[in-house]
Amino acid sequence: MTAAAGGGSDGTTLSGAEREAAIARSLAGARPAPFWLDDPAYRPEALPALAGETACDLLVVGGGYSGLWTALIAKERDPYRDVVLLEAKETGWAASGRNGGFCDASLTHGFANGLARWPGEIETLERLGLANLDAIEEAVRRHGIDCDFERTGEIDLATRPHQVAELREAADEARRHGFGDRVTFLDREAVREQVDSPAFLAGVWYRRSVAMLNPARLAWGLKRACLEAGVRIHEHTPARGLRTDEAGTGASKGTANGTPNGTLNTGGSGGSSGSGHGVTVTTPHGRVRARQAALATNAFPSLLRRLRPYIVPVYDYALMTEPLTRQQRAAIGWAGRQGLADSANHFHYFRLTSDDRILWGGYDILYHYGSRIAAEYDQRPETFRKLAGHFADTFPQLADVRFSHTWGGVIDTCSRFSPFFGTAHGGRVAYAAGYTGLGVGATRFGAEVMLDLLTGEPTERTELELVRTKPLPFPPEPVRWAGIALTQWSLSRADERGGRRNLWLKAMDATGMGFDS
């Protein structure tokens, strides 16, 4: 076992060389793989790829949370609707299986962002967000999904003096809008009674609006629920192209992987495409003709090219410790098992797992020129060393903790930090994207929105300004890369200067353009 990177086990301060050696020891032997996906006892077998041609009522493209919820809720709304889901690799392999497992009720990337952008409907958005989280909890129970769901809430932390006043104002603002019963401001003594760290100066505890869960097991459980509901899932089947089929969906029977396809449903779920016209999506070894389609590919390039300027794919990174001993748990407290996040622009998020490991992630957020996505970006040793050092600074009493897993993954972000929605191909195609790191909960709401849009009938959800408007698009390269780099530098500088934002950030704020994770 090793001394902490931030100090020795006896509380002494380490030299620079000693600190770097301690960080290296804490990471030695860590498996370069997402902890949640490294779970052979729960990981389901991959399903066969699509080979040939098939037809359906609703085609869902993407097998993360967004697509899985869309497929499942579509079958719950209409059990006779024939639903096909295509996934390029395996269900839950990307962001849905790599995130921190914070299932947040917020639909707007936090109350403050929602209030700034949609002040006239913030109470409605908060109400719908909490109802959505309740629905997730109920679905987990009803489908018997073993994903360690815990409605613990989250504490947002101040780790620098200027953040204390910011958090107090955030709590006061929530009370002014009628949410005081579920928001508690914690001073330094109170927050350290919850979780003991010398770095914590204050906190705001959102008591019921966040749940902790095992993200991969949620995705795998939703996959099972979809299959039990009759959804046809094809994995290792990337969608290559999308076009309108003006002649209709063609024959309603065919063969895919040797299995007869169902007859297209002509009931009430057809919405604006009820004329029989549909869309065709091509894959490497087949095609799907569908009456309607829902696109749920998020960070990955959309089949609708006009949506691509609205999304920037960025990489986020995390560490997982080995299970803490009873003595180590006692040293930090954390009896409430809340999710935690600090309040910096470049922030950390951290939480306990069911076996008392600590997931520690965030801080660095990496964009690669040309919106490039590649497996080689999933591991970044310099970020892992930085995160390990920050962990040691935050919890010096965990001097002997080592890390078992290191990983990264790509998420989608948009300039307003919260999802946007729409339709294409004459209302036959719906899409949702831009969840910006809070998709564990909000993707279920997005699934409901997409299905509402496909009916062509207005609902409370589709009438929201959140749904009816879009963010500003990001500029093309090389301006995109340069602008993101300047924003990252400015955010770091603001963290170092007591939260003071420079002219660049003020200009971004004024135009409604932002960059976050």
List the SSEs and their pairings.
Layout: H1 16-27, E1 52-61, H2 65-77, E2 83-86, H3 95-98, E3 102-104, H4 111-117, H5 122-142, E4 154-158, H6 161-176, E5 183-186, H7 188-194, E6 202-206, E7 210-212, H8 215-229, E8 232-234, E9 241-245, E10 255-256, E11 259-260, E12 278-283, E13 286-295, E14 312-321, H9 326-332, E15 339-342, E16 348-352, E17 358-367, H10 381-394, E18 403-413, E19 420-424, E20 429-433, H11 439-455, H12 465-468, H13 479-496, H14 503-511
Parallel strand pairs: 1-2, 1-13, 2-8, 4-15, 13-20
Antiparallel strand pairs: 3-7, 4-6, 5-6, 9-12, 10-11, 12-13, 14-17, 14-18, 15-16, 16-17, 19-20
Structural notes for this entry:
This protein has 517 residues and is an alpha+beta fold. It is built from 14 helices and 20 strands. Strands 1, 2, 8, 9, 12, 13, 19 and 20 form an 8-stranded mixed β-sheet that branches. Strand 12 (278-283) and strand 13 (286-295) form a beta hairpin. Helix 1 crosses helix 10, helix 2 runs parallel beside helix 8 and helix 5 crosses helix 11. The longest helix has 21 residues, at 122-142. The chain is globular. Residues 1-5 and 248-275 have low confidence and may be disordered.
Oligomer class: single chain
Largest sheet entry: 8 strands, mixed
Whole-angstrom Rg: 23 Å
Question: What structural class should be given to the helix and strand makeup?
Answer: alpha+beta
C-alpha termini separation = 34 Å
> If helices are DSSP runs of H or I spanning 4 or more residues, what is the number of helices?
14
Can you tell me the overall shape? globular
Low-confidence stretches: 1-5, 248-275
- Fraction of residues in β-strands: 15-25%
Q: Approximately how much helix is present in the residues?
A: 25-40%
Mean pLDDT, nearest integer? Answer: 91
